[in-house]
Each structure stands twice: as structure tokens, then as C-alpha cells.
């Protein structure tokens, strides 16, 4: 593997990672394929952003509801 890595101009560790990734992507080795992993990461990021937006909206709604109650009950 060292001689092959030298031909590619990379370290043996990098070449090993490439081979493992190719094996996972082709189904020859267990693990999540790169495409599925990338989609999962994107969905997790979107989920996190939506949760943050939802929390902001929930707090804003409570703030404005309280302001409306204060306005209605002030003499």
C-alpha cells in the first residue's frame, strides 16, 4: 500500500481511507455510503435550524401575547 500511495502522491493513511470509502459506497463493506451520510448530515443541519427558528417564534409569540394582555388590562 505504501508504494501505491507514493504513486498517487498521498500518504498510506489517505489511500486506506479512500479504499474504505469506495468499499462502503459500493456495498462491499458495511457502513453508511457517503451519499446517504451527506444527506443525513444535511437533514440534521436543517432540523437544527428549524428547531432554532421554532424556538424563536415560540418566544416571540409569548412576548407579544403578554404585551397584548398587558395592554388590555391597563386602566
Terminal CA distance reads 83 Å
Oligomer: single chain
How large, in whole angstroms, is the Cα Rg?
A: 26 Å
Count of structural domains: 2
**Percent in strands:** under 5%
Shape: rod-shaped
Low-confidence sequence ranges: none
Structural class: mainly alpha
> Number of DSSP helices?
3
Properties at a glance:
75 residues; mainly alpha; 83% helix
Structural summary, described in words:
The longest helix has 40 residues, at 34-73. The chain has 3 helices and no strands. It starts with a helix and ends with a helix. Helices cover 83% and strands 0% of the residues. The mean pLDDT is 92. With 75 residues, the protein is mostly helical. The protein folds into 2 domains: 1-31; 32-75. It is rod-shaped and about 85 Å long.
Amino acid at each position: 500500500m505504501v508504494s501505491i500511495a507514493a504513486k498517487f502522491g498521498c500518504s498510506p493513511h489517505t489511500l486506506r481511507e479512500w479504499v474504505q470509502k469506495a468499499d462502503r459506497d459500493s456495498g462491499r463493506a458495511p457502513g453508511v455510503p457517503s451519499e446517504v451520510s451527506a444527506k443525513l448530515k444535511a437533514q440534521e443541519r436543517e432540523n437544527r435550524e428549524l428547531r432554532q427558528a421554532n424556538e424563536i417564534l415560540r418566544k416571540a409569540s409569548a412576548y407579544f401575547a403578554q404585551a397584548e394582555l398587558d395592554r388590555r388590562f391597563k386602566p
